[in-house]
Backbone:
């Protein structure tokens, strides 16, 4: 059905798709270009597209007025920490739910499935209360630990673990391989891509998370890039060139990760779309 | 933990070789052991907080005092509170503005992309870019794009001789502006999932239709769309749930404001939970609002599943 497409249809398709792509990219291009403009250039009518001189002043001002190095460090600790711990906990649980047999397994798994639909906002206030009681406000513990137990992540990985033929486990068992050995030597290598996809989703999600960090931190030294950029707007007037420089600094690492790992991300989204 | 489990492993491995009966026991032990961290965590950070939140919604509590039980008072207040009704209205307005438009545009784009044109993967990469970008950055850029004098949006409208509104300075236009950004942000994700749905439609259906003399448009309308309904159902359900929980863009487009006409026009339920709970410290009331949001999501999901019989074709 694909090769007999008339030329005119192809041209129309390209025009529409390109217009769409321009709409998608334009805000990013605009952000990038504006981050190198002077304040005067941002205020000019008609619009100045390309700055006359690419100045790094905006970046310097962001870095000198806000502790962006600290925000970076904090964000990396939180997003990488959450990702590593979540992958460990969820993949072990998913392996247990998907590959091992024991009484009550399916009931426990159903319990986890039943909370997939529960909005995180429902538990926001009690969780905040718990953070106060534990003395975790303004600590990395509050930013990381509540986020590492993911019902969704477990469900996601279990779907993949179920696709491996169970005969592999059985023959390994006969050869004297323990469940941990099966997990490490059979299941993990065969489902590497699923783990990578979930890892990237978690990393990006944590990098961009706004509500929870906003609630459990209020010290400048505990700010993340997301809360830093969000609160920047309140502290400045309308110096959009500065904002854009901050936005470029905050988003560049994930855009980089995305470009490197887009295959995993796009395949992962496509598969969960069908399976979930 | 690691030492402990490897000790258990060594212990169990010895037994495993002896009897198959013990093999099962070892599998049981590993089974429970491996889910323990997850279940413990979910218990502490999800199940118990869920129950607590229902209880808290029945109390008067401002963080500093101990919670005081007041029965259904918070719910009675909520149902007569103009603020909450406004939030509900805004949330529904946002949802109706975002979900159908997002799915409609995405279906069209996914259909074009599924035609195996050259450069499909580049388009996919570009369309997906907004999803991985933090909403704080997205909001800043779009606020500047919507600037009535120097923004690109009105500059674009000027080409067609349209004088654009004061998007962010007009209570009538700020919500449409937020909706445009949300649709823009949602397309990439929808497109990827829809393309997977399109790819899964067996080509035999098209071949059979072609033998019967079906033309392009007919094939799209009578084969592609019906066989895509499971994907459309999934996307609309996820989209509805996500929209009812919208927070980031609302908070960011209001620069964290707690009052004013722009906030009045855009404040959603989750933003209400956030301000009631964490700005005004009315934790009990905010919990009641969270419970109501949960109920609303359950109702909407229930309706979705109820009506799926009418329009979703599984094959």
Residues:
């Amino acid at each position: 059905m694909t090769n007999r497409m008339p030329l005119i249809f192809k041209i129309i398709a390209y025009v529409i798709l390109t217009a769409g792509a321009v709409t998608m990219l334009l805000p990013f291009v605009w952000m990038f270009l504006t981050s190198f403009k002077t304040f005067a250039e941002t205020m000019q009518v008609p619009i100045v597209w390309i700055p006359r001189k690419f100045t790094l002043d905006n970046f310097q001002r962001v870095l000198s007025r806000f502790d962006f190095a600290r925000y970076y460090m904090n964000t990396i600790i939180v997003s990488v920490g959450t990702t590593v711990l979540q992958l460990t906990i969820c993949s072990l649980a998913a392996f247990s739910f998907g590959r091992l047999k024991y009484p009550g397994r399916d009931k426990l798994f159903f319990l986890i499935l039943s909370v997939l639909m529960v909005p995180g906002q429902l538990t926001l206030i009690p969780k905040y209360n718990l953070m106060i009681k534990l003395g975790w406000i303004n600590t990395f513990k509050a930013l990381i630990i509540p986020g590492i137990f993911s019902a969704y992540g477990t469900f996601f990985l279990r779907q993949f673990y179920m696709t491996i033929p169970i005969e592999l486990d059985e023959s390994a068992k006969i050869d004297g391989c323990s469940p941990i050995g099966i997990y490490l030597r059979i299941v993990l290598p065969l489902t590497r891509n699923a783990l990578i996809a979930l890892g990237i989703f978690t990393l990006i999600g944590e990098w961009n998370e706004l509500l929870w960090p906003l609630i459990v931190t209020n010290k400048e030294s505990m700010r993340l890039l997301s809360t830093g950029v969000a609160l920047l707007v309140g502290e400045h007037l309308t110096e959009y060139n500065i904002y854009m420089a901050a936005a470029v600094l905050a988003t560049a690492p994930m855009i980089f990760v995305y470009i490197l790992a887009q295959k995993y991300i796009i395949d992962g989204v496509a598969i969960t779309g069908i399976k979930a | 933990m690691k030492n402990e489990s490897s000790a258990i492993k060594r212990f169990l491995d010895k037994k495993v070789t002896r009897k198959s009966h013990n093999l099962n026991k070892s599998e049981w032990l590993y089974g429970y052991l491996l889910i323990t961290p997850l279940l413990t965590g979910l218990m502490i950070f999800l199940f118990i907080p869920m129950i607590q939140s229902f209880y808290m919604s029945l109390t008067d509590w401002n963080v500093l005092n101990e919670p005081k039980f007041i029965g259904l008072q918070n719910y009675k207040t909520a149902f007569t509170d103009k603020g909450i009704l406004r939030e509900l209205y805004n949330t529904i307005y946002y949802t109706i503005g975002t979900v159908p438009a997002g799915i409609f545009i995405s279906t069209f784009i996914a259909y074009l992309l599924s035609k195996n044109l050259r450069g499909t993967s580049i388009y996919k990469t570009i369309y997906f870019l907004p999803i991985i970008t933090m909403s704080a950055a997205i909001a800043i850029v779009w606020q500047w794009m919507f600037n009535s004098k120097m923004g690109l949006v009105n500059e674009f409208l000027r080409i067609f001789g349209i004088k654009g509104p004061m998007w962010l300075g007009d209570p009538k236009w700020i919500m449409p502006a937020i909706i445009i950004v949300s649709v823009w942000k949602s397309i990439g994700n929808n497109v990827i999932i829809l393309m997977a749905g399109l790819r899964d439609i067996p080509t035999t259906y098209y071949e059979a239709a072609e033998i019967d003399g079906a033309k392009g448009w007919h094939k799209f309308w009578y084969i592609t769309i019906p066989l895509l309904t499971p994907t459309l159902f999934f996307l609309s359900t996820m989209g509805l749930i996500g929209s009812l929980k919208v927070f980031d863009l609302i908070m960011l487009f209001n620069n964290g404001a707690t009052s004013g006409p722009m906030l009045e026009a855009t404040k959603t339920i989750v933003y209400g939970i956030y301000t009631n709970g964490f700005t005004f410290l009315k934790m009990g009331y905010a919990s009641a609002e969270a419970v109501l949001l949960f109920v609303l999501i359950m109702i909407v999901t229930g309706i979705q599943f109820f009506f799926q019989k009418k329009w979703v074709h599984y094959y």
Confidence is low (pLDDT under 50) at residues 1-5, 7-19 of chain B. Chain B touches chain A through 108 residues (CB under 8 Å). The radius of gyration of chain B is 26 Å. The first strand of chain B starts at residue 59 and ends at 60.
